[in-house]
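Example 289, ligand iron/sulfur cluster.
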Amino acid sequence: MKVIPANPRGYCHGVVTAMRMAREVVAQANGPVYMLGYLVHNEHLTSELEELGITLIDADDRLAGLEEVREGTVIFTAHGISPAVRELARAKGLDCVDTTCSDVDSTHALIVEKVAAGFQVIYVGRRGHPEALGCVGEAPDAVHLVQDVDDVQALTINASKIAVTTQTTLSVWDTATVIRAIKARYPEAEVHNEICLATQDRQEAVIAAAAEADLVLVVGSSRSSNSRRLVEVAEQRTGKPAYLVDSTTDINPEWLRGCAAVAVSSGASTPSLLTRDVIRHLEALLVTG
Ligand code: SF4
């Protein structure tokens, strides 16, 4: 059996920066330190941060989560936050550390710019995901969240200026389908596809690796949107079976039966160590099998 690692895979610049900033905060803070939601969507990195002394406020609704914090430092996650959350944190007198990824920041800036110029904004994203909540929160009356083509058909926007933008970690191909549906309904809409480069590169790489393999394993946590999208695009674009595994213990030996080659990728928030473990585990099977 051959192991085919997808390249690139794993950590993106946004995750690396967020983790560095969080470790620095712990080293310098005097009082309690909180992360408002999962700093990055990976269970292992979250445990590492909790061991450093950072308390997780486990709430996708950041405003509700912030109500629990009375003092100290609050870290905003790489997924970004709405202005209402930032204002509440300031009003409570909390020290704020914002690790929002620069790619997410640029979507926020685009929404603010377009709404100020009189546009209605159609935001393609995942309902309930913290990144989508933060972006819609920039202008809740002017930003319309759509997740799929059915949502597009249900839109009732009546405006001459419409802009379209997206969550950073979506499937490139599913998003293209939704954007086509939006253009069919609103031909004048201007489109700003904000799927980040790290997501695009990892999706193209997993498809290329999957094309050479019989099975695809993506190392990542079930919370991780970009990891789940890697599984979906590999399956949808190549027809090969693909599974999300958090570590070697999730690998079902039945999946490997009859496989000549296994492609391995990992989400943007997956520690390299875990992916290396999975690759070594598969290579050991190659030797023993
Ligand atoms: Fe930033 Fe993209 Fe990484 Fe999200 S996946 S943290 S948007 S680089």
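Summary: The chain has three domains: 2-11+197-288, 13-101, 103-191.
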